[in-house]
Amino acid sequence: MTLRPLAGLLAASSLLALTACNDFHQESGSEIIPQSEAQMSTHGHGVGVSKDVLEVHNDMLVMDTHLDTPAYFHSAKYDFSKRQTFEADGTHVDLPRMKEGGLDGGFWVIFTPQGPLDEASYHSARNSALLRQMAIREMAAKYADEVELAFTADDAERIAGEGKRVVYQSMENSYPLGTDVSLLETFYIGGLRMVGPVHFRNNQFADSATDVTGEKFDGLSPLGEELVKKANELGMILDGSHAADTTVYDMIELSTTPLILSHTGVDGVYEHFRNIPDELLLAVAEDGGVIQINAYGSYLEALEPSPERTQALEELDAEFGDTADMDKETMTRYWEARRALNDEFPPPRSTFEKFMEHMLYALELVGPDHVGMGADWDGGGGVDGMSDITFLPKVTAALIDAGYTKEDIQKIWSGNMLRLLRAAEEARTSELTSPDVLN
Questions:
Q1: Per its UniProt record, what InterPro entries does this chain match (predicted)?
Q2: Residue 149: what are its φ and ψ, rounded to 5°?
Q3: In contact, 405 and 324? CB cutoff 8 Å
């Protein structure tokens, strides 16, 4: 996550472009859950965990803070109500698999790729972001018997208690706001409750961890400072994923509430621009914040693409050029070509064990009050051994194996995230119309 020397950044940018459990024991009086082979049952997508672990998992409120699934909502090939498979279409999330993997919901992402910093591009991005939010709301309306929009921290337990899936909204990249942070109010009324200032490139708000040109503002820009203040005013969680270290430090200093890193790994396991060094993670935790561990393979470990994939990616880049310079139509064609390339020459994949190494490292460093899960489902996440959300009980099993209590694991699955949302709500100073006005 640190902005490193330019030569190293260029190399990393090129690579990105090419790119038996023990007893459940711990202090605080947790019961023993034996893990004998006789108790093992096959769950969902071939996940072998004990029946007792499944009971623990299914009894918890299980949430993920980074679901990129809304990108599929207007695709004719995707049906949220039908069970699909990663092997068949590359997707990770749908309603049947949410039930199968015990995923109660989380933050569904309004994502906009970074583009040029000019008024025409801002307007185009704004329209795209509003349409993405509309798509999320349309999904919730269409499947109202199965899912429900959530606006407050208290909504999650109520919605899940009614047997429905929870739909919070987040914004990955504030680029669509242009230079008018008051637009955040519009998205808030529509249900937005988490916002991150930046994505892969520096923008009008902040420095990115992965911009090959290096730092532009040494953290937040003056407009970015306004964004943080507006998010605090509205009662939104601020997300430091994708931001340069300097940006995260600025956000910690300025924000009246703790930060979340909604889908981030740790430098202590694999040093990468998108991962966070120990000293910054400690600062986030000391401020009350939380890191949600992602499952994006190339952020978990160094992965070497096949020569065929490398060549195909180089040819694609030569054809389309820099994504930051693309208009909306070109960007659409680029991602269609990129998906076709991935189908023909799949990227190398990391493993469930490596994902858990990141999570356990963070837990050891900052403790279970400051760690959660944001696997980047449908946004590039997923690893061998955890290829979609039906494998989530394996995470619970691994945490039990590592000695964490039920209370700890519940914090990891949703308690920490909801604590941050509740803190944001309590610090809210806006007199904007009631947050459930569009519910």
A1: Metal_Hydrolase, Pept_M19
A2: -65, 140
A3: no
What distances in angstroms separate CA 408 from CA 167, 360, 370, 395, 413, one per listed residue? Answer: 24, 12, 10, 13, 9
Q: Which two tokens stand for residue 66?
A: 């980074």
pLDDT in tens, 3-55: 443 333 333 433 333 332 333 222 222 332 333 332 333 334 447 899 999 99
Do the Cβ atoms of 337 and 312 come closer than 8 Å? no
Q: Which two tokens stand for residue 220?
A: 């937040």
The answer to whether the beta carbons of residues 346 and 313 sit under 8 Å apart is no
Domains of the chain: 6-305+347-427 (3.20.20.140)
DSSP 176: G
pTM: 0.85
Could you report the per-residue pLDDT of 147-182, keeping only the tens digit for each?
999 999 999 999 999 999 999 999 999 999 999 999
Give the separation between CA 278 and CA 276, rounded to whole angstroms.
Answer: 7
**To 10 degrees, what angle do helices 307-320 and 6-18 make?**
100
Distance CA 417, CA 420 (A): 5
Residue whose token pair is 């040093």: 271
Distance of CA 182 to the CA centre of its chain: 24
| Average pLDDT value for the chain | 89
